[in-house]
Amino acid sequence: MSLRTRLVWLTGSWILIILIFFNIFIYYYTFKKTTSEEDRLLWNKAQIILRNPDIHNPRNWSRPDLLQEFGAEDTLIRIIGASGRIRAQLSSNEELSAYPAVYRTGYQSTVVNDFDSRKLFIQVPIISENTGTQIGLLELGKELDFISSVLDILVTGLTITTISIILFSIIAAVFYTRVIIRPLRQLLETMRAIRSSGDFVLLDPKYTSKKDELGRLGQTFNEMILFLQDTDQKQKQFVADASHELRTPLTVIESYASLLKRWGGNDPAVREEAIEAIHSESARLKSLITSLLKLAEVEREELMNCSDVELIPLVKQAAEQMEHAFQRQIELFCPDEEERPIVLCADREKLKQLLIILIDNAFKYSKEPVKIDISRVRHHVQLQIIDRGMGIPKDELPHLFERFYRVDKARGRGTGGTGLGLSIAKQIVTQHRGTIHIDSKIGVGTTVTIGFQQQK
Ligand SMILES: Nc1ncnc2c1ncn2[C@@H]1O[C@H](COP(=O)(O)OP(=O)(O)OP(=O)(O)O)[C@@H](O)[C@H]1O
Ligand SMILES: [Mg+2]
């Protein structure tokens, strides 16, 4: 059963149950109210009859005029003797007279429901004036024609109202479930379309513009699709860029190898050049693959191995290593670590790798000594790597963290870069919930600023 049918059914059944309950209540309430009024009138009449002293003497019961004055239309008045025999009766209605006479002690009021009519009977004991004991029973009966017709009208009215309400509510339910279900159907169809075509399809804006839950469902779906599309796009771009980057050195190697194969082997100059080129391109290929592996590794967040890391000794260690490797100089400015060490909750190895990537850039793209500045503002730690090198054009700054991005390819190639360093750095900073920002001016230098939250 579809969701829509189920909702319509549910609404219909629920309203039907409520209506049945209320109809029964209204019917019985009206019935009780109207019958109790008739009941009261009969009791009053019985009291009036019993006020006649002749009634209390059985010898008068056979007098034909005894009950005459109390006669009324559609009413039965009779006296039942202690033997159960009818001793006196006044009735203009045969159906009422046909009601079996039963002698009872005590008061009673009974409603008799026949197929097409209702009758009310009351019985009142007749007490002897002399002995004070019950000597007979006064029975009054009345045809409840008016009440029956009122109840018939009521039943007809209630039936018509019930059927109309059920019909209207089913029509309303069909309509509003369509409104509710439509966005869900659309969502389902869009998902099917995505599965069958493999394309990223967005939901129509009319299903995402509403501020209700369904609107938000649509918005979230579209956001998810855009995110997947973006990820897919980046993935494709990455594969394309990586293949391209890997192909370039391989093409150089292949062409030099062919050169050697054909005739370079005999010419020492060509041989020397080919070997040199093959060697440098192989080294480049190796560094490219190493960077790619590093990138894949840092992207795996579960490999984060966090612990309390003292920042200043780590920076000193990385700086010293780089100074030795590049035979260059680094000037370090930092607060007195003895006084209050700067402790970060971080992955030590990744943090060191981040420093090496940034120092490597500063060395590669400048000639003068590099400056590292560490400062602390409350719980924030700021680390700056400053060089006075060639700088980066302003319009290139937003792209620096993209994979394989190099500011003017010739410069990158000349210094052997792969363009992956900063994207790895960005990954590491993001994983540590930090921030990274690059300021640069052509011919003046570059400042990379990293911000971290300090461990309390
Ligand atoms: N300190 C800097 N001064 C000038 N240019 C820089 C600096 N740091 C980065 N760049 C520019 O940004 C580009 C991207 O840097 P990134 O570190 O990502 O790649 P790379 O240095 O070329 O290669 P590698 O992957 O080996 O680090 C570099 O090619 C370079 O042009
Ligand atoms: Mg670099």
From TrEMBL:
Ranges where the Histidine kinase domain occurs: 241-456
CC annotations in GO: plasma membrane
The keyword Cell membrane belongs to this UniProt entry's keyword annotation: yes
Family annotation (SUPFAM superfamilies): ATPase domain of HSP90 chaperone/DNA topoisomerase II/histidine kinase, HAMP domain-like, Homodimeric domain of signal transducing histidine kinase
InterPro entries from the UniProt entry: HAMP_dom, HATPase_C_sf, HATPase_dom, His_kinase_dom, HisK_dim/P_dom, HisK_dim/P_sf, Sig_transdc_His_kin-like_C, TCS_sensor_his_kinase
Keyword list, A-Z: ATP-binding, Cell membrane, Kinase, Membrane, Nucleotide-binding, Phosphoprotein, Transferase, Transmembrane, Transmembrane helix, Two-component regulatory system
Membrane topology (UniProt): Multi-pass membrane protein
Keyword Membrane: yes
Pfam families: HAMP, HATPase_c, HisKA
Enzyme Commission no: 2.7.13.3
A Gene Ontology molecular function term of the record: phosphorelay sensor kinase activity
TM region positions: 7-29, 153-176
Domain HAMP as annotated: residue spans: 178-233
Domain of life according to the entry: Bacteria
Primary location class: membrane
Subcellular location: Cell membrane
Catalytic reactions on record: ATP + protein L-histidine = ADP + protein N-phospho-L-histidine
PANTHER family listed in its UniProt record: SENSOR HISTIDINE KINASE TRCS, SENSOR HISTIDINE KINASE YKOH
Protein name, per record: histidine kinase
Organism: Paenibacillus cremeus
